[in-house]
Amino acid sequence: MEAGRISFSYTTQEIFTLSVMAKATAFTYHPGVCNIDSAGVSARRKLGYIVAVTGVVVVVGMFVMHIEPVFRAIAAAGFGFGAVLNYLQVKEQFCVVNATTRSTEIDLKKTKIVNDLYKELDLKKRNAMIVRASLIGLLCGLVGLLPL
Q1: How far apart, in whole angstroms, are the C-alpha atoms of residue 122 and residue 99?
Q2: Distance between CA 118 and CA 101 in Å, rounded?
């Protein structure tokens, strides 16, 4: 190595990942920050709406059928968690499933992440998002405890 020059070496998988990310899409993977592109965001937005609407219908139906408050609370918390988690994934362009499977997503196609530091950063972000969604989901569960 000559003075003043730095040498980098990449694995074949890292080069492939970088070339895929350099496509015409505006998405760039940032470890622990974002791991899905606009197509992934759109899919999670739709899923979030479906979960939220289904949750409202189910919980209202449980009120109408005079189901016990504890069961209403469980349903409200579960649907609340799902809706909030999808909202967070859309807002932050980060998929918790991708972090769990240690992959990134471009045009709804997954690419494995090979760098251990990147995997660790994604897992930290995933855990933080799950905690936030769980806490808000529990707050949503309080709706089920309301009297008839």
Answers
A1: 5
A2: 12
What pLDDT was estimated at residue 27? 81
DSSP calls for the chain: --TT-------HHHHHHHHHHTSSSS---BTTTB-B-HHHHHHHHHHHHHHHHHHHHHHHHHHHTT--HHHHHHHHHHHHHHHHHHHHHHHHT--HHHHHTTEEEETTEEEE---HHHHHHHHHHHHHHHHHHHHHHHHHHGGGGS--
d(CA 102, CA 11): 17
| pTM value > 0.90 | no
Alpha-carbon distance of 67 to 41, in angstroms, equals: 35
Between the two ends of the chain, the Cα-to-Cα distance in Å is 76
pLDDT digits (tens, 9 = 90+) for 75-114: 999 999 999 999 999 999 999 999 999 999 999 999 999 9
Distance CA 100, CA 122 (A): 8
Residue type, 93: Q
How big is the chain by its Cα radius of gyration, in Å?
20
